[in-house]
Amino acid sequence: MSQTSPDTATIIPLDNVDPALVEQLLDRAFEPERRTRTAYKVREGVDYLPALSFAALDAAEMLVGTIQCWPVALTDPDGRAHPLIMVGPVAVVPDRQGEGFGQALMSASLSGVDSRAPLPQVMIGDADYYGRFWGFTNEHTAGWDLPGPFDPARLLVRCENPAVLPEKGMLGPWRG
């Protein structure tokens, strides 16, 4: 099933796109060295969640953006793993940024989160931007750690009931 936005983007499941094209797009959007970033360590060894991962095609049906979501967990100081969904990367080819493709991808992905039992969503990004449009905040992540360098102000979470979030923990792949 696809959705079309007013910007003439067609949003399709990421599984419908050749993985090599996705990798090329990610290289263009973030550079090939992106694999050394901390976010890659957080989701290392797990596959993205197909139901929450999408591609954006422009009016000419060219791949212009992708979003992937990943099963991760915040392991608290007692060793208990709290499952979360890591949102991102949200990638749009540089010459098409600012046209609404990233917003369409984020909206498609987050609308797929099951409202009956939503897992908290976590991401690394700009708090003002992702907070304004989708309710992400760094208010509850000050005690969280990542397996590599990161800017604590950019570690964001979106959760209907923040009381379920551990105050402290290490973010990493969910292997449950």
How would you summarize the topology of this molecule?
Elements: E1 3-4, E2 10-13, H1 19-30, H2 38-42, E3 54-57, E4 63-75, E5 81-92, H3 101-111, E6 121-124, H4 127-134, E7 143-145, E8 155-158, E9 168-173
Parallel strand pairs: 5-6, 7-9
Antiparallel strand pairs: 1-2, 2-3, 3-4, 4-5, 4-9, 6-8
Pfam families: Acetyltransf_9
Organism: Novosphingobium mangrovi (ex Huang et al. 2023)
Protein name: N-acetyltransferase
- Number of separate domains: 1
In oligomeric terms, what are we looking at?
single chain
User: What about the largest sheet?
Assistant: 9 strands, mixed
Shape: globular
Radius of gyration: 16 Å
Share in helix = 10-25%
Count of individual helical segments? 4
> What is the number of E strands?
9
CATH superfamily: Gcn5-related N-acetyltransferase (GNAT)
Distance from N terminus to C terminus (CA atoms, Å) equals 29 Å
The CATH architecture would be 3-Layer(aba) Sandwich
Extract low-pLDDT stretches: 1-6
Task: Name the features.
176 residues, 4 helices
Characterise this structure.
With 176 residues, this protein is an alpha+beta fold. It has one domain (3-173): Aminopeptidase (3-Layer(aba) Sandwich), CATH 3.40.630. Helices cover 20% and strands 30% of the residues. It contains 4 helices and 9 strands; from the N terminus they run E-E-H-H-E-E-E-H-E-H-E-E-E. Strands 1, 2, 3, 4, 5, 6, 7, 8 and 9 form a 9-stranded mixed beta sheet that branches. Strand 3 (54-57) and strand 4 (63-75) form a beta hairpin. The chain is globular, with a radius of gyration of 16 Å. This is N-acetyltransferase. Pfam families: Acetyltransf_9. It comes from Novosphingobium mangrovi.
